[in-house]
């Protein structure tokens, strides 16, 4: 998950450069997921032939909704809000996904919280502390930190105009809510469709189709669909292969192993890395509030991870012994007569 957040960090800068160059965000989303679908298709087809469940109509509709939440709605609202806000604001707001996912997971009983246990309290405190750190980064700027040297890389292009901050904030909050629901739904879908590579492929193709339909309705310019061999091309390849392909597969695997809350708690790392790179490499302004908020977020992250680690420790001694008892009970098949005598017993 730490490597995944590093991948998201570079995505912020390469997409910012591409959008400043004139790339349509909705066209970018469509092309990016088409690339990801074709990259993941051969791996999904050959590596999961024996474990891939049969695709029923009900399961396809579930994948359709999952793609709509993860691609069609979330990403289109997310990148549309870039026109009205800033990348720093977006990176900070994404961190609320962990808290939203935790609350939804508790309500749906996907996450166990025992407030009488220290690790249960650590989960709650970790979520609240992380949310407090996000609020510090978002609300409090503080004095600007002086750059120690000239920026190593310049991102050139047309400046992004922030026409309506309120509209951008609404779009960002809405995308965070659908993003949280998407993480929760991943955990539920993986129980019925445990083939992560195939699920990643399906989400990319279905999400690309949904985004294409949406883009055609709101933008009819043919020129927006044409990209050259420049930053637009490379941002599409990077977003498709690394983000929508490799990282989405990693997230699905981690969701199956550790749960959706564990996955979303790593989002603050991307915000911290974005701030560091923006300051040291790209020469962007770094405020004291970002540093203080980042430190608070890290404290909350480790609190929740410590609480989550307790889940694994609790499962090993108690639940495994219970599972062993159940397996011993189910290992025998008893067929009883009307008189109650045992006539057959198979191991």
TrEMBL record:
Keywords of this entry: Membrane, Transmembrane, Transmembrane helix
Protein's UniProt keywords contain Electron transport: no
Membrane topology (UniProt): Multi-pass membrane protein
Subcellular location: Membrane
A GO cellular component entry from the record: membrane
Pfam families: EamA
GO molecular function: transmembrane transporter activity
Transmembrane feature ranges: 29-47, 59-80, 86-108, 120-140, 165-185, 197-218, 233-254, 261-281, 287-306
Domain EamA: residue ranges: 17-138, 167-305
Database matches in InterPro entries: EamA_dom (IPR000620), EmrE-like (IPR037185), WAT1-related (IPR030184)
Top-level taxon of origin: Eukaryota
Family to which this protein belongs: Belongs to the drug/metabolite transporter (DMT) superfamily. Plant drug/metabolite exporter (P-DME) (TC 2.A.7.4) family.
Entry protein name: WAT1-related protein
Organism placement in taxonomy: Eukaryota, Viridiplantae, Streptophyta, Embryophyta, Tracheophyta
